[in-house]
Design brief:
It is a single chain. By secondary structure, this protein is an alpha/beta fold. Among the domains are: about 90 residues, 2-Layer Sandwich (Gyrase A, domain 2), CATH 3.30.1360.70; about 100 residues, no CATH class; about 100 residues, no CATH class. Helices cover about 50% and strands about 10% of the residues. It is built from 20 helices and 13 strands. The strands form four sheets. The chain has a four-stranded antiparallel beta sheet. β10, α12 and β11 form a beta-alpha-beta unit.
């Protein structure tokens, strides 16, 4: 189905053209003054400069032309020019009802699929192996999952890659700490020639304790740090005993990471890491040198990336350090080479802490300068802000440590469980199951409802509230609609609902209908701008519109059965739109709350 704004703009374009004005001035937007109109066109203001006329005169001409053609295309119930040159519009109620009936009959509720199968890579994990997921991993996971789901729904072939940190100095630190703790392991016996054990020499609990201990030791003991650097070098150059330890680290870590990402309902098509780029790095360095892009500077190999359009000089991208070690930029460029070879994506989206903005400017520019990526291929970096505590500082545990993600999830589940039990309408088992569903919504919506680039305060009490702009409020609205529909079915003996959505009989009904009509416009824009917060704002407005309509209309007590059936069709559409949108945000609704 065509988006409703496109239909309105098409009518406006005809009127502008018929009056002798360029159609580009006919853009229609949602009104920012709903008390005056539902949609508005401000094109007469811009056209006035080009045509040397008063804006109001141009607006009046266009309005007269629209009013004259209303019989041929009855989209509007109100068309008026307003000073100094606005064109105010209200939709015809019958047209609006027909549009919604069309949505309810269409697959995906009338949403078009602009993606047409084009491949997009979304890099949104970034976890380090041998470390537990903590609150710092939350934002990339939930933002990335939502962006990926929106893209898939719009018809793109979305490939999510966790892109693990699995090849750096932390590997050498773990190996050397393991050597100190268990020196008799065969991996450290240079005379050993047999097969290495299948069972790992540590549990996930031990591994998560080994790394921080090794990291602390390296800061205090220069000799240990040097050993770790040597071990890392040997690993990256194929030393079999250390590669066997690395495989154990990967197996144990991946099992734990997948379990914790599953708790967030976050999933990846690819579980690749920095190590997968290693095979491409020698060729990469040689190629950049051959093309004259990479040169020696103070012993390091660098690429200048500053462009004439930059307001200030940017630091060069370091490809290889003076000691011969590769860096994150090298790994990311190698990963791009692999992705181009295997997937040929039409777009890249990276989701990380916004402090990495310069890094991605450097990597993207080198990739295009070297011709690894076509100049027209979009490469987007979504840099997110920090999740802070009520003190405005990065979120910590009560004792000042970094909170594990599984503990954060448990805390919010408990808060929701206690709120549910206050109602005393469920068994403990039902409440616990529902709390996990609602808790996930509270956590994800609390994050996604904020613009990604901004820092936000994690407020457990507010996020778990069933009132206000929260995930539980959205779910409660869906559950309320389900309850109404269930009661309607019981009263009608389970018969199918006949009829269709009717022209609105009141203001709150039309407000709900207008919100529903904006569905495909909002969803396309939210993905195009990689902005899940816009989808959150939409469903909050939609939930408010439904609850306003529900407050003003006694749906189940309505005596006019035709009108009642029309309302039932309307709230089914509201439920379906809300359900689609929350799924794209990464959570779903329970049957009861």
């Amino acid at each position: 189905m065509e988006k409703i704004l496109d239909l309105i703009t098409a009518e406006m374009s005809k009127a502008f053209a018929a009056c002798g004005y360029d159609e580009s001035y006919a853009r229609v937007v949602l009104s920012n003054r709903p008390d005056l109109c539902e949609y508005q066109c401000n094109g007469a203001m811009a056209a006035a400069k080009a045509y040397k006329k008063r804006p109001f005169d141009i607006a009046s001409e266009v309005v007269t032309k629209l009013q004259g053609s209303r019989e041929q295309s009855p989209l509007f119930s109100l068309i008026e020019a307003a000073m100094p040159g606005f064109i105010n519009l209200r939709l015809n109620g019958e047209f609006l009802a027909g549009y919604l009936n069309g949505m309810s009959r269409e697959e995906k509720l009338g949403l078009e699929e602009p993606g047409r199968g084009e491949t997009i890579i979304v890099d949104y994990g970034g976890a380090n192996v041998a470390k537990p997921l903590h609150v710092g991993h939350l934002r990339s996971a939930v933002i990335g999952e939502s962006v990926k789901r929106m893209g898939s729904f719009l018809g793109y072939h979305m490939i999510g890659d966790v892109h693990l940190g699995d090849w750096g100095l932390q590997m050498g630190l773990i190996i050397e700490e393991l050597r100190d703790r268990k020196p008799d392991l065969v991996y450290f016996d240079e005379s050993y020639t047999g097969e290495y054990p299948q069972e790992p020499p540590f549990t996930i609990g031990e591994l998560e304790e080994i790394y921080p201990a090794a990291s602390k030791k390296s800061k205090e003991d220069g000799n240990f740090k040097e050993r770790a650097q040597t071990a890392t070098f040997k690993l990256q150059n194929g030393y079999k005993p250390f590669h066997a330890i690395w495989e154990h680290i990967m197996a144990v870590s991946l099992a734990d990471l997948k379990k914790n990402y599953d708790r967030l309902d976050v999933h990846f098509e690819l579980w690749k890491g920095e190590s997968d780029a290693e095979a491409y790095i020698p060729w990469l360095i040689e190629d950049l040198q051959k093309k004259g892009l990479a040169y020696e500077s103070q012993g390091a190999l660098v690429v200048d990336i500053t462009q004439e359009s930059d307001s200030k000089e940017l630091p060069p991208c370091i490809i290889r350090k003076s000691d011969g070690a590769a860096l994150y930029a090298t790994s990311d460029l190698g990963t791009i080479l692999e992705r181009e070879k295997l997937y040929s994506p039409r777009k890249y989206i990276y989701i990380t802490d916004k402090r990495q903005e310069l890094h991605f400017i450097q990597v993207f520019r080198v990739a295009k300068m070297a011709g690894y990526i076509k100049e027209e291929t979009p490469m987007v970096h979504i840099g997110f802000g920090t999740m802070n505590g009520k003190d405005g500082k990065p979120f910590k545990t009560r004792d000042g440590g970094i909170m594990r993600l599984e503990h954060l999830i448990a805390d919010i589940d408990e808060a929701v469980y206690n709120r549910i039990r206050e109602n005393r309408t469920m068994t403990d088992e039902e409440a616990e199951k529902t709390a996990k569903i609602v808790g996930l919504a509270a956590l994800k919506y609390g994050d996604l409802s904020n613009q990604a680039a901004k820092d936000y305060i994690f407020d457990l009490e507010r996020f778990s509230s069933f009132e206000g702009n929260t995930g539980p409020y959205i779910l409660y609205t869906i559950v309320r609609i389900k309850s109404i529909l269930k009661k309607y079915q019981e009263a009608s003996g389970g018969q199918a609902v006949s009829g269709e959505i009717l022209e609105a009989a009141g203001d709150t009904e039309k407000m709900l209908m207008l919100e529903l009509a904006n569905y495909n416009e909002v969803l396309e824009n939210a993905f195009a701008e990689t902005a899940p917060h816009k989808l959150c704002q939409y469903i909050y407005d939609l939930a408010n519109a439904f609850n306003g309509f529900y407050r003003d209309n006694k749906i189940l007590a309505q005596q006019d059965k035709t009108r009642q059936a029309g309302w039932i069709h309307l709230i089914i559409l509201a439920k379906d739109v809300l359900s689609v949108c929350i799924h794209l945000l990464g959570f779903d609704a329970p049957e009861q709350m």
